[in-house]
Specification:
By secondary structure, the protein is α+β, with helices and mostly antiparallel strands. The chain has a six-stranded mixed beta sheet. A four-stranded antiparallel beta sheet has the order 1-2-3-4, with helices on one face. The radius of gyration is 33 Å and the shape is elongated.
Length: 289
């Protein structure tokens, strides 16, 4: 790293000629055009490195670089940026470029600045993989405005679990309601490693404890996932008379279509599911039978 700093500050490009556990040798990048600048160091028994040979004269004039210095790499740039990132994570790319120019009098490209910032972030805060690995296997959260405003929404909570597509294989649980304006209103969220009875029980427990609280008569709508059915069966607070568990009509319709592939029956089934009066419901159910 020290040789890289020297080469950048002196506007000289060097390259590694030999590098192993015991020997480190760098030469001028113009070695093949008769510039014999060279530094060779070896590791002693004490563990320290000692410079054994040094030819410190370049035969060519100093170069002027503008973003393409061979030795001004991501590692060297990140060393300049680390103090700034520790001070503020909102440091801008153009400010990174300025900081590197002030340090080495070289103007780097925005791409190099971005990669240097990325490396500096990893050094200060750890990389994404380690950060993800350190997360708890189950995380639940609900925002206070959502908790406070739930009492003004319709007492019908829809819950659902889905995959989060991307680099990491995680699942998302979400609960939503419909507000007074007929708009979807998110209540709470949870990320977890796998969908099971345990995760659904945790989710429903936290939903009751932190959001629903003492309210009763809530209607809980879900699909027929085994984890949800088992959780509701083991949680009295989500059973009648405290709450009512129902299923998504869309999922019921999909299952109905598989068993009875008839368009007229499908339309009747959907009409029945959307009725709000019991007499109409029963009349249509008779026509289906």
């Amino acid at each position: 790293m020290a040789t890289k700093m020297y080469s950048v500050k002196e506007c000289r490009e060097i390259m590694v000629w030999e590098s192993n556990l015991d020997v480190y040798k760098v030469v001028c990048h113009r070695w093949f055009t008769d510039c014999h600048w060279m530094l060779r160091a070896s590791k002693k028994k004490s563990g320290l490195w000692k410079v054994g040979k040094y030819i410190g004269t370049h035969i060519f004039e100093m170069d002027t670089f503008n973003g393409n210095h061979f030795d001004l790499d991501v590692d060297l740039i990140s060393l300049v940026l680390i103090p700034h990132i520790k001070a503020s994570i909102r440091y801008k790319i153009k400010e990174y470029v300025t900081s590197v120019h002030q340090q080495y009098e070289c103007t780097i490209t925005k791409r190099k600045a971005y990669l240097g910032r990325k490396r500096a972030f990893e050094i200060v805060y750890g990389d994404w993989d380690n950060s993800f690995a350190s997360l708890p296997r189950y995380v639940f959260w609900a925002f206070k405005p959502a908790i406070d405003d739930f009492v003004h929404c319709r007492p019908v909570i829809s819950i659902y679990g889905t995959h989060v597509y991307g680099k990491y294989d995680i699942k998302l649980l979400i609960a939503v309601v419909v507000d007074a304006n007929g708009q979807i209103f998110p209540l709470d969220f949870s990320i977890y490693a796998n969908e099971s009875q345990k995760t659904w029980m945790l989710f429903l427990n936290h939903l009751k404890q932190h959001v629903v609280k003492q309210l009763s008569g809530i209607c809980l709508i879900s699909d027929r996932h085994g984890g949800i059915l088992s959780s509701v069966e083991h949680l009295p607070e989500w059973q009648e008379p405290y709450a009512h568990h129902r299923y998504y009509v869309r999922h019921l319709k999909a299952n109905f279509q598989k068993k009875y592939p008839n368009k007229d029956l499908h339309d009747l089934m959907w009409m029945v599911a959307t009725y709000h009066q019991e007499c109409k419901f029963r009349r249509r159910m008779e026509s289906i039978r």
